[in-house]
Amino acid sequence: MSADIQKACRINIEDFEGPLDLLLFLIRRDELDVITIHVAEVADQYLKYIREAEDLNLDIAGEYLVMAATLTRMKSRMLLPVERALMEDTEDSMETLMRHLVLYKAFKEVASDLRENESIWRDVFAPPGERARYEEDITEIDSGQTSLLDLLIALENMTEKNAPPPLHRIHKPLLSLTECVSALDNLLPGNATRHFRDAIGENADQAIVVSFFVAVLELVKRGWLTTEQSYPFANITMKRKEERWEMNA
Amino acid sequence: MLDQLARQIEALLVATESPVTLSRICELTGCGTESAEQAVVRIEAELSSGGHAVVVARLAGGYRIVTDPDLGFIVGQLFEGKRHSRLSRASLETLAVIAYRQPATRAQVEAVRGVNSDSAMRTLLERDLIKITGRQETPGRPLLYGTTSRFLEYFGLSNLEHLPRMDEMENLLKLSAQDIERMASELSGEEIDQTIQR
Amino acid sequence: MLDQLARQIEALLVATESPVTLSRICELTGCGTESAEQAVVRIEAELSSGGHAVVVARLAGGYRIVTDPDLGFIVGQLFEGKRHSRLSRASLETLAVIAYRQPATRAQVEAVRGVNSDSAMRTLLERDLIKITGRQETPGRPLLYGTTSRFLEYFGLSNLEHLPRMDEMENLLKLSAQDIERMASELSGEEIDQTIQR
Hints:
The complex is a heterotrimer, with one copy of chain A and two copies of chain B.
Chain A: H1 3-10, H2 19-29, H3 39-55, H4 62-79, H5 84-121, H6 131-134, E1 140-141, H7 148-158, H8 167-170, H9 177-187, E2 193-195, H10 196-200, H11 206-221, E3 225-228, E4 237-240
Antiparallel strand pairs in A: 2-4, 3-4
Chain B: H1 4-15, H2 22-29, H3 33-49, E1 54-59, E2 62-67, H4 72-78, E3 82-83, H5 89-101, H6 106-113, H7 118-126, E4 130-135, E5 143-147, H8 149-154, H9 166-173, H10 177-187, H11 189-197
Antiparallel strand pairs in B: 1-2, 4-5
Helix pairs in contact in B: 1-3, 5-6, 5-7, 6-11, 9-10
């Protein structure tokens, strides 16, 4: 491995925030000046680096490859004899790239200033405020306390799987009399006795309880079933009277 | 002039969200119970000799620094009239449906949200974030609701078209494509009408 | 020893939940702007001569009393686990572009940075450091983003003019405004084409 390759390998593509960041790094490393830099030089450096990264099977974001293509095109046009118009075009795009680099470099510097501010102000703590001590009960809302993002998140939450299903699905329909009677038919074999709540299940919801209760009343009316309740709200004991229940009869 | 230990404790008592116990103070500053107690006394003395607006309150087994109750007449005004609380989730959901569907009926809102939205809608009406815009010409002629200019102001929008579109929300909210599709169909008229007809 | 006006103002700066503007201080205490400013100076002097753990911070267009940064190592322990992580470099760069360019579109941010900035923008929205401010009246009507007052507080800035290197950046942005627009429209143009192809 040549010294150059070793140098290239030591830098990791993950450390860069994109092709501009990488370009700036290469320019600084080789002590070139952003303003007067020769595009062919940078292009070579950049392409070499990208090739190294590819050889290492690193995942290279598309932006890096677009930049590589741009640099290659600029370089080739400069080396080949081309028409004057094309030449000017290339000079223009080089100039634009350099301006872009200067701009990006400035923002990078600002970002690092902000990083400094962040590290100071992370160590600053404000008192929690004394609203709880003083707040009045009847109060109005103030602008800007809820952000648009809250609104969007609310929309998003409605689509989450844990969101309650629509109203019409929550209320299970009452079971039909026939359905309940046939279920009870199975639940009360022979002349066994059984508690109402046990028969339909402790966790049955209101709709189910009501449906079965109506069915029991119907069966009692027909004399096919007797019920006993020792005191109000106590469990109801059911006992089968008739062997065959023929609802349509 | 406060010494370093007293300064550290003062900082804790100012910044804390709930009273700090003596043992917590000792744990965080690495001092003993007695030194901590004495430091609190020094803080109190320094605050009072400087004529400061705060006092050390001994509450619920702990300490914290709060404004002197005799300044309540000034401090209370800070919190008068305005509530900085955010809208509840129910209100936000309701508002979101109305904003994107307007004009919308209560039934349409409830079809999307899947729950009764009476009280959320009342709150939004009271807070002037939604208004009645007319009646739908369908059986029962239900009331139609839309958002108000207060709504725009509240969310810092200059007009309704500035509400992010559904496709933009995908970028904003990391939603799966499936979620977006479902939401979009839920918010489009046909689906809601079908739900109601059922 | 603080006078009555300074005491009242100190109470406000301790009890508040967000920075209090000078005009609000005047409104609540009934004093003039100049007296209020002088009183704040007296508060600062008294706090410092007493060796107290707090300072007056000028943040987001107002004042509030906060703990001295040099005590962060002690106070931070109270909030362990609750503190946000530091912003990533991508987020900081994105935030810088939005702060100086605001209102800015996502395409403009990406044009300057040269990389996709979706997830950085999402983080910033989630952390309430940027917000949607409207739409740009250009084809596609992209959403516009700006910084929040939380942004100013987070970086300890009293207002947007106090952003680092303001003059330098303003000049630079003026010079490259055209470049940015061109690159941004290329970016959003590309995106649209891709979407259509799919």
